[in-house]
Description:
By secondary structure, the chain is an alpha+beta fold. The protein has 18 helices and 17 strands. Among the domains are: 1-72 and 138-212, 2-Layer Sandwich (Nucleotidyltransferase, domain 5), CATH 3.30.420; 76-137, no CATH class; 213-298.
Amino acid sequence: MSGNGRDRTHNVLLEDGHGGTMATRYIGIRHRVKRTAEGEAKPTQVCVIVDGESTMYDLATETDELDWMLGRFPRSWRLAVKNQDEMLIEELKQSRQHHLNWKKIRKNQDQEELEATNFVEKVARAMCVLEIPDKVEGFEAGDQVCMTLGGSGDRFAFALSRRAEELGAGTKVMRVKPAVFKDVRERLQRNKDNDAGLLAEMHQHTNDLYLTERRDRDLIKLVEVWRNRIEAMKARIGSEQRLRSHLIGKIFCSEEGKYPEGAIEVQYEYQRSNDKVVSALEEEEKQREREVVKVLNGLDVYNELFKPVKGLGHLISARIIVAVGDIRRFATAAKLKAFIGAHVKRGGMYGEPIPRLQFPRKRSGEVANWQSDGRQAIYLLVDQFNRNPDSPWGLKLREYKVKFREKHGQKEPVKVRAGLVDAYRAVEQWFLEAGLEDSVMGYREIGSYETFKQWVDDGMHKLVYMKEAVEHRRIDIEPSSLVDINDLRSRIAALKPKDEGAMTIVYSDGHIHRMASQRTGTKFVEWLWREWTRFEERNKQVPKAA
C-alpha cells in the first residue's frame, strides 16, 4: 500500500517472460438513479474484472461516483491513529469530510484503551471512534470502461471521459447501444441485476463499442444547459403564477372593498413588470438561453445538419438534439420515428381494433410512450415550414397538401355521419391500398348505413372487375399484388359502423393540412436519421484495437 493509503493490489502483475506488465482492468458500469420516488435504493453498480476475477461495487450517491472517478472511493476503513494520521485527517477535513467516519463505540469495548491510541469524541450523545479510509478503489490509468449510450449515465460518462484524457496510458471510456446490449443479454440469458458484469465482459469480447470523446461530451453538455434553461423557465412561470394568485386574492378579499378600476390582467401586468423576483428570473432564463446557443454553435452536427435548414432555429434544434441524444442508439429510422412519435401505426380509436393507418396521438386506451419534448419539437418545426412556404421543406409540405387533397375526397371534403366515420376511414384505406383511385369512390355524403353499404358494394364491384381484367390480361398488373377479395370482405364484415350521430366533415382543408404536416414531420425525421447517421460514420474513430 502506497503512502497515501491507496490499495494497488487489484493491479495483478502478469509475468510474460519479458518482464512484468500490468493486467488490463475491464470495468462495466450500470448507472442508475440513486433512489426511486418510492424510496427504493438503486445505487450505480460497478464491476471490475482483472485477469478473470471480478469485484462488484455499489455507488450509493453522486459523491461516491465522484470519488470513484477520482480514484478515492473507500473500499475498507480503519481506526485513525494518534501521532500518525493527524496530517491526513486535516487534509480530509479540508477537502473530503465524508471520508471521516465516526463509528459508535460498542458497550463491550474499553473506551480508555481506545482513547490511548485513537480519536474518540462524543457525537450525538454517543461516544464514537474516528475511522478513515484504509484502502481505496477507483478509475485509474489503463482502465477500460464500458457503459450504455444515453440515459442517466451521461453525466458520469462525461466525467470519466474527461478524466481518461488526463490519465492517458490508453485509458478509454466506451459505450454500447442499448439495443445491442439488450440483444446480448437475452441471447446469453443473463440476469438484469448483473448488467455491470456483462458490460465488462462485452468490453473484452466485442468491437461494437463507441469511444466517448470530445464531441460526445459537447452533446452531453448541451443536454445539461438545456435542462438548466427548462428549469429557469419553469421557475419564472411558477413565480408569475404565484404573483397572479396573490393579486387576485388581494383584490377579492379586501375588507375596504376598494376594487381596482379596469381589468385584473392590467393590474397583473403592472405588478409583474415591477416585481424584482420575476425580473431576476427572466434575466436568468435569458442567460440560460445564451448558454444553450453558445454550446449549440460549437456542435459540428448542428452546424452541418441543423443550421442549413430554414426555419430550424437554435431552440427547436436544441429540443431535437437533446431528445434524440446519441443517434447511434437507433439502428433504423423506424426506431427513431417511434421514439420521437413521428411514426404511423395501424389501430383504432378508443382501443377498437380497426386496422387503419393512424398518426399516433394520446387516445383513450392507448399507450403514448414517445418522447414528448422531441415530438413537440417536430410539431414546432413543421409549423415553421408552414410559415416559410418557399423553403425546401415548406415546398414539400405544400406538395403533400396537394397529393392528399387529390387522393382523399375527390378534391373536396366528404360529409359522413359520426357513427360511420371510423368504418369509412378504415374501408377507404383498404380500397386505396388495393389500388382503387378515389375517383371511383366519389361519394360526397354518407349520411346513413344504407349509403355506407352502397359505397362499400360499389368499391367491391370495382375490385372484382379489376381482378377479372388482370386475369384476362386486359390490365397489366402483377396478379400477386391484388388484394384477396374474400379476406377483404371478412375485414369489412368485422367492422361495427353505427348509424348515429351528427354529420361531420371528413378531409376538410384543416384535416388535409394536419395530414400533410404529420407526413412532412415523418419525412423530416427519416431524413434526419439518415444524414445524422452518415455524419457519425464520417466522423467516427476506430473504437478499440482487435
